[in-house]
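pinging the channel bc i need a second pair of eyes. not urgent but kinda urgent?? the chain im working w is below, pasted from the shared doc
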Amino acid sequence: MLIFLTEAANLPFSVSLGLMIVFVLLEALSLLLGAGVSGILDSLLPDVDGDIDLDLPDSDPTTFMQILSWFRVGEVPLLMLILVALTAFGISGLLLQLITRAIIGELLPPFIAMIPACFCTIPLVRIIGGILNAYMPKDETSAVSEESLIGRSATLLAGTARQGKPVQGKVRDEHQQTHYVLIEPEHAEECIQSGETVILSQKKGAIYQAVHEIKERI
């Protein structure tokens, strides 16, 4: 088995499983020291600098957030999703190579075997992420409803939001926890620029509408 794992054609899958083990050991060690890798990754993930210009269309941040949401990012700790992806990719690739050797007597080149392994990994991350989200313990004391965010200040992170073209923003709830939501202006003639602070005025579906803060004149 060790010889099979170390064959050149299986290197991407063996490395993937090796990285999974490294992440698990790092998480265990960091927890003993009082700061888990999982918490560090989750705190770094949303730190998008609103001033960074990616030269992307306004709709791209929305598409990116939809992709992250599809992969359960935000529902399940990022480290767990990484571990699921590494494990799924490694095991599916090795199983494919075992089946291929049994049928044709030799292994597929790694760049060919990686393609079906990736196609197997993508749905597995979503499915297993959904299962983890369903059974993970949740802190009920700090849970807030989506409607409770209405009336709170939010900051747009990247791009320009227009009605029909929402952009990601961040808002803090009453427990000072940060939520990342899609924001568009309430009024069709307005737009919200990256870095601007607005007030969430209402929620339509998955999108929050917002108005600009009214600053008192001195």
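so The chain has two domains: 2-136, 141-211. and The beta strands are 153-156, 161-162, 167-172, 178-185, 191-192, 197-204, 207-212. — does that match what u expected or am i reading it wrong
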